[in-house]
Amino acid sequence: MLGVGAYRTRNRPARSEVLPVPIGQMTWTLTDHQGRLVRPSNWAGRPVMVFFGFTWCPDVCPTTLSDISLWLEELGADADRLIVALISVDPERDTPDVLAGYVSNFDPRIIGLTGPADEVAQAAADFRATYRRVDKEGGDYTMDHTAGVFLFHPDGRFASIIDFHEDRRFAVPKLRRTLS
Amino acid sequence: MKHFLLATTLIFSAPAAMACETVTIGDLTVEHAWSKATIGAGRPGVFYVEIKNSGTTDDALVGITTPAAGMPMLHETVVQDGIASMPHAMSVPVPAGQSVQLAPGGYHGMLMELTTALKEGDSFPVTLSFEKSGEVTVNVDVLSLRAEGPDCADAGQ
């Protein structure tokens, strides 16, 4: 699977010059939607699926979470050991309570993570994800962010990315390879 | 008998859901209008629709208005180098003889300054302004935040 990652790197140099580091080498500390602290070590030995987004996002984020929910339903109990996390790139508005209200609309296995700005920045750096605040008129703002879904093997190695516009038929087979 | 016929007509003309309503203006057909429930009124809502142009003249969707939001705008989700952004779209082309979809992951209406939270099962009107064909209003069905599209018998998506 690392071969797939390397292949992507050659073809999309602007996107992923560097692959996400293994989960075990990540150093962020975030808070989940139930207020519990979560560290990468909590995910040891389990396959991981991570998506960056924010709850004010009207299109990309609910679409991705709807897709993820459908994949999880298709995988059924096979996905029960999978860690599925939305990491907010908008911690200013996405408190644990706000995330709790949001993720309750999707598959119950999806958790929301948020935290202080520097911890969110650390998580993005570890995953090689990027995000940027875009101010709009009237004091409102939105966020540009990495839209792909990151997959990691149970031993923490990066497996692959499911791109936002990738044919969704390939997502579940990709996930199955990550789970095993 | 007359009453029976009237009742039958009503049953068959009643759409299964508002989202399955079809409205036309000139050569344009507007259908499958839907939105997603929002958590509160602070977050923007979204508006999706399908527009068919059966004429021989290109047209364009240049704006939307609705009593449901103070600042409705046309946006396009763009994913470049893996990064999603959502620039404002000045207009959405509706070329002659073609169909255009405002759909998840592409063009969409962004409903900012919602007057009230959008709840699943509600509906609200959106008026679409076209460069050449003028204005037409369609009823928009609010589906769940998880919905991927309306469930219409004729939805050929």
Broad structural category of chain A: alpha+beta
Counting copies of identical and different chains, the oligomeric state is: heterodimer
Give the radius of gyration of chain B: 16 Å
Helix-strand topology string of chain B: HEEEEEEEEEEEE
User: What is the H/E string of chain A?
Assistant: HEEEHEHEHEEEEH
Number of domains of chain A: 1
CATH topology of chain B: Immunoglobulin-like
Q: Count the strands of chain A?
A: 9
Which percent band covers the strand fraction of chain A?
Answer: 15-25%
Largest sheet of chain B: 10 strands, mixed
The CATH class of chain B is identified as Mainly Beta
What are the low-pLDDT stretches of chain B, counting only 5+ consecutive residues below 50?
4-16
Computed structural class of chain B: mainly beta
Low-pLDDT stretches of chain A: 1-16
Strand order of the largest sheet of chain A: 2-1-5-4-3-8-9
CATH architectural group of chain B: Sandwich
Give the tally of structural domains of chain B.
Answer: 1
Helix amount of chain A, in percent?
Answer: 25-40%
**Tally of helical runs of chain B:** 1
Number of helices of chain A: 5
InterPro entries (chain B): LpqE-like, Lxx211020-like, PCuAC_sf
Keywords (chain B): Signal
Organism (chain B): Gemmobacter nanjingensis
Protein name (chain B): Copper(I)-binding protein
Main traits of this protein?
heterodimer; A: 180 residues; alpha+beta; Glutaredoxin; seven-stranded mixed sheet; two-stranded antiparallel ribbon; 30% helix; globular; disordered N terminus; B: 157 residues; mainly beta; Immunoglobulin-like; ten-stranded mixed sheet; two-stranded antiparallel sheet; 8% helix
Structure summarized in a few sentences:
The complex is a heterodimer of chains A (180) and B (157). By secondary structure, chain A is of the alpha+beta class.
Set out the fold topology.
The complex is a heterodimer of chains A (180) and B (157).
Chain A (H helix, E strand, L loop, with lengths): L1 H10 L18 E3 L4 E2 L9 E6 L6 H16 L7 E6 L7 H8 L6 E5 L2 H11 L3 E5 L5 E6 L2 E4 L5 E5 L8 H9 L1
Parallel strand pairs in A: 3-4, 4-5
Antiparallel strand pairs in A: 1-2, 1-5, 3-8, 6-7, 8-9
Chain B lengths: L1 H12 L8 E4 L2 E9 L8 E9 L5 E7 L3 E8 L1 E3 L2 E3 L6 E3 L4 E4 L4 E8 L8 E8 L3 E10 L14
Parallel strand pairs in B: 2-12
Antiparallel strand pairs in B: 1-2, 2-3, 3-9, 3-10, 4-8, 4-11, 5-10, 6-7, 11-12
